[in-house]
Specification:
The complex is a heterodimer.
Chain A: H1 2-17, H2 20-38, H3 40-46, H4 54-64, H5 70-75, E1 95-102, E2 105-110, E3 114-119, E4 134-140, E5 143-148, H6 151-154, E6 168-172, E7 177-181, E8 183-190, E9 195-197, E10 207-211, E11 216-219, H7 221-230
Parallel strand pairs in A: 2-11, 5-7
Antiparallel strand pairs in A: 1-2, 1-8, 3-6, 4-5, 6-7, 9-10, 10-11
Helix pairs in contact in A: 2-4
Chain B: H1 3-9, E1 10-18, E2 21-26, E3 30-35, E4 49-55, E5 58-64, H2 65-68, E6 81-87, E7 90-96, E8 98-106, E9 110-112, E10 125-131, E11 134-139, H3 147-154
Parallel strand pairs in B: 2-11, 5-7
Antiparallel strand pairs in B: 1-2, 1-8, 3-6, 4-5, 6-7, 9-10, 10-11
The chains are: A alpha+beta, B mainly beta.
């Protein structure tokens, strides 16, 4: 009883105090905290980065410490952290990501998993009776793209109101899915060492990892497509 | 010559509008289209049942297509129509925003319904067809209600 409550109390207290940019950082802190808890082996790797940029991340990690609930460590399978390199194959060398915003939060998707970027289509045909995240269908090059808004599942609750109108659609899975976003920003070239890779057994399976330097979360496009198709997205 | 097989597999559909979108139902299941007439509410009926009408001496249950599909309610107006359909020997009316036209779609023009999330409540969507740059949602009337719901409507 005590620890989960304490965690939410801590989070609420912090959110009540911090301003807008800090709130964003706090959200990423949560993601980072989870990753740190799940994959201590990765954390060790993280400490190694050759560049002197670790200093940038230190304050972030410091703010994480108070909200880290110790039971979460125990709730993960003990073997999950020792399974070797958790990074995906495409990230064994420097790779590029598209940075975009969703509810103001910086997210990224690896270019190898990106099919395209569209301006937000005007014609989206809603499909009644489906999951609330499914906005509808739109056509692109004769193909029907399933447009989804994953924000309710990805963003912290306080980020869901007052969102800007979406400007772009990010196509993944050969264009079968279009992810609504506030707007796309830029591409980043990342070396694997800059990313904290998430363990497959973590709480947020849609998350590939986080990039402290850019305060962004990298989405797992394959998981998104697979789970959306199966309807197992929660 | 080459068109023969395609023409043979084409099906006619009646299209109607709901919340600015176009839906299509098999013309063979449509008996007639009525202007909105007086609908007598039925106490205790499911929320998607608007009530009953007297169709030439026969009592016909009218289903609100918007409610059935989870769309926002809308007051009926001059364009509103009650489409009388027949499903499994049962005759019911469905209230729609307007009736548009009869179209012909080849089976290959209808793509399977998208699979997203829990589709239990959208089984009635048979597929989607692209026409004139717009998407038309093809409805399988047999699955508009579940078997239990059809039975319930039959006993109103």
């Amino acid at each position: 009883m005590s620890n989960p409550d304490n965690r939410s109390d801590n989070r609420e207290n912090r959110i009540a105090v911090v301003d807008e940019p800090q709130a964003l950082t706090a959200y990423l802190d949560d993601l980072l905290a989870e990753i740190t808890e799940i994959t201590p082996a990765v954390s060790v790797k993280e400490a190694v980065p050759p560049s002197g940029k670790v200093g940038d991340s230190s304050p972030v990690r410091a703010t994480v410490t108070p909200i880290k609930p110790s039971p979460a460590v125990r709730s993960e399978p003990p073997g999950s952290a020792g399974g070797g390199d958790p990074s995906p194959e495409w990230a064994r060398q420097p790779f590029q990501c598209l940075l975009f915003r969703l509810g103001g939060v910086a997210l990224a998707i690896p270019l190898v998993k990106l099919t395209g970027i569209l301006a937000m289509p005007k014609d989206i045909t809603p499909m009644p009776g489906h999951s609330s995240l499914f906005i509808g269908l739109t056509e692109h090059h004769g193909r029907k793209v399933k447009v989804v808004d994953i924000s309710a599942h990805v963003l912290p609750p306080e980020r869901l109101s007052n969102r800007p109108a979406p400007k772009n659609l990010i196509l993944i899975d050969e264009g079968r899915w279009g992810l609504v976003c506030d707007q796309v920003e830029e591409t980043l070239t990342l070396s694997p060492e800059l990313v904290r890779w998430r363990s497959p057994s973590g709480k947020r399976p849609w998350l590939s990892g986080t990039v402290i330097k850019h305060l962004c979360a990298i989405l797992d496009a394959d998981y998104l497509a697979r789970s959306l198709e199966k309807g197992t997205w929660v | 010559m080459a068109k023969e097989p395609q023409a043979a597999s084409a099906t006619q559909y009646v299209t109607f509008r709901l919340a600015e979108e176009t839906y299509a139902i098999n013309v063979m299941q449509v008996q007639e289209v009525l202007r909105v007439t007086e609908i007598a509410p039925v106490p205790g009926a499911p929320h998607y049942v608007l009530g009953i009408i007297n169709l030439r001496g026969n009592v016909v249950t009218v289903i609100d297509a918007r409610r059935r599909m989870g769309l926002m309610d809308k007051e009926s107006d001059d364009a509103s129509r009650i489409v009388i359909i027949e499903v499994g020997g049962q005759v019911v009316g469905i209230m729609v925003d307007s009736v548009a036209e009869v179209i012909e779609l080849a089976a290959r023009d209808v793509e399977p319904a998208p699979n997203v999330g829990n589709d239990e409540s959208s089984k009635y969507i048979q597929g989607v067809a692209s026409r004139d740059g717009e998407l038309t949602i093809v409805v399988d009337l047999n699955k508009l209600l579940t078997d239990d719901e059809w039975a319930e409507v039959a006993t109103l």
